[in-house]
Design brief:
- This protein is an alpha/beta fold.
- Helices cover 41% and strands 20% of the residues.
- Strand 5, helix 8 and strand 6 form a beta-alpha-beta unit.
- Helix 1 crosses helix 4 and helix 6 crosses helix 10.
- The longest helix is centred in the N-terminal third of the chain and has 28 residues.
- The protein binds benzoic acid.
- The site of benzoic acid has 12 residues, from helix 6 and strand 4.
- Benzoic acid (BEZ) binds next to helix 6 and strand 4.
């Protein structure tokens, strides 16, 4: 049995159709069918129910799929990591969600560069969902994001929980409030959530915070990204809910108010390829914790 057989079988099982799987694999359908047949002969069991349309897996097929996928993920990780080890100069590619750039990310990267000037650090802004894909494809080595995923090929460390705040137009009646705000106070305001795609996203975390409080906001508009939401707030078009880091953006015409609800928090996550234990990653994690210590932030330390 070769890796090719695993890759072909996973494509057929996921597409539930030989024609689509062959297109995805950029091969013709007859050789694809032959390879699957070879695999079944080698294993001595049927993986696909004969004549089923859309195609259905046998129990053995489902078992094989569940184990073949993580194996293929590991092979892909192995490629990205071996290439990294083999490079003479040390590099670290970091993916980050936009909100972190207005908060602690610059301090953390500075600290890391001061401690490890020999490592070339590159930064790319991307959503958490895109970070997972980029990690698997070896385009980044670490992602700072917010959305949990159950992907077995990714290791996630929850760095801390960050409070959500309301961004409201300065001059808005809520901006004059002295006491803290509750999600209930925002229910009838035009609310901008971001990003529109890919989902799940920070938009879903904001809506989940409302639903945890048994609330459904009246007027929700999805916008492409944080900067658009902030621009619309500054223009007086409505309000947005953002992580506290965004307060560092110092947008003209925007006031920020703490939200006091119990569920109005967004995690900051450190994601890496599951098998990757490179010193660069350990050192990055140490840089994060040292900035947290300097700022007296509460967190639970985890090891890579
Ligand atoms: C944070 O806000 O906790 C954070 C931001 C960027 C990278 C790591 C942590």
């Amino acid at each position: 049995m070769e890796l090719r057989h695993l890759r072909y079988f996973v494509a057929v099982a996921e597409e539930k159709n030989f024609t689509r799987a062959a297109e995805r694999l950029h091969i013709a359908q007859p050789p694809l069918s032959r390879q699957i047949q070879q695999l079944e002969e080698y294993l001595g069991v049927a993986l696909i129910e004969k004549g089923s349309r859309p195609l259905r897996l046998t129990e053995a097929g489902q078992f094989f799929l569940a184990h073949a996928k993580p194996l293929l993920d590991q092979v892909r990780d192995l490629k990205a990591m071996t290439q990294r080890v083999g490079k003479l100069e040390r590099t670290l590619s970091v993916g980050f969600v936009a909100s972190t750039l207005y908060g602690l990310l610059p301090d953390i990267i500075r600290r890391y560069r001061e401690r490890h000037p020999e490592v070339e650090v590159t930064l790319q802004e991307m959503t958490t969902v895109d970070q997972l894909k980029a990690l698997k494809e070896g385009r980044i080595d670490v992602g700072f994001g917010r959305i949990k995923s159950e992907d077995p090929s990714i290791r996630r460390i929850r760095l801390r929980d960050e409070r959500m705040v309301a961004a409201v137009p300065s001059g808005h009646r809520l901006a004059q409030r002295q006491e803290g705000l509750r999600l209930l106070d925002l229910l009838h305001e035009p609310l901008f959530v971001y990003p529109k795609a890919p989902r799940p996203s920070f938009a879903d975390q904001v809506l989940a915070a409302f639903s945890e409080a048994n609330l459904v906001p009246d007027h929700v508009t999805e916008v492409r990204e944080l900067q658009i939401a902030m621009g619309l707030v500054a223009a007086g078009q409505g309000i947005s809910i953002v992580p506290e880091s965004v307060v560092g953006m110092h947008h003209r015409n925007v006031a920020y108010l703490q939200i006091e609800d119990k569920y109005a928090f967004s995690p900051v996550l450190f994601s890496v390829r599951h098998m990757d234990r490179s010193p660069e990653l350990e050192n990055m994690l140490a840089a994060v914790y040292s900035i947290y210590d300097d700022m007296n932030l509460s967190y639970e330390k985890e090891r890579l």
